[in-house]
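User: Can you help me understand a structure? I only have the sequence.
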Amino acid sequence: MRVLLVEDDEPIAESLRRGLLRYGFEVEWVTTGAAGLAVTTPYDLVLLDLGLPDTDGLDVCRALRLRGDVPIIVISARSDETDRVVGLEIGADDYVSKPFGVREVIARIRAVLRRARPENRPSGPQSYGARLSLDRKAGRVRLDGAEVALTPKEYELLAFLTEEPGALMSREQIMEAVWDANWFGPTKTLDVHVAGLRRKLAGAVAIEAVRGVGFRLVVAPDGTGDGPAAPEDGA
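Assistant: Let's start by predicting it. Here is the structure, written out as tokens:
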């Protein structure tokens, strides 16, 4: 996933760039509106500062929107409601006010990409191995053809982990996606919900814990799974 970052404040840009790289994004950073509009390599999303040295970021936003439907998130120190409304009306998909945390920006990026690309999501149930299916449109999970009763957060956790089966997701990534970008409390609730999914889906998928990092979902294609989950290991 490639992000075009248009930001002239070097400390902010470097912090964002490092954070985005940590979460697996590729970043092209430019410091002016003209440089942003001159980029020809494809990108999947734009992070756009409004206070640029050569032009108003709103004009850059308008020009980018005229070119296509790439998602745009405005990042700005302008907290005035008028700027926020104007930015959204001329085509920005979201607006983040400075100061902000990288975690918040990552969560906003994911939310915007999910909204911007619904056509990439199958309209019907998806199968994960021989036994498990998930219908995101209907919000239903079935195991061996029978609906599984999941709590809302169990469902959201499963839906997130099945977006990339086999990929290791950090605790921070999961908390931002499933709970809240501003969640700073203990993450024990994540372990509780993982344990619930392990119990309810035992044999169909495994949720492996990587100590000190996070979790990965592993699909059992033949439906054999790994049996009942092992006790929590404090990942």
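Now, to help you interpret it: Confidence is low (pLDDT under 50) at residues 223-235. The two ends are 27 Å apart (CA to CA). Let me know which part you'd like to focus on.
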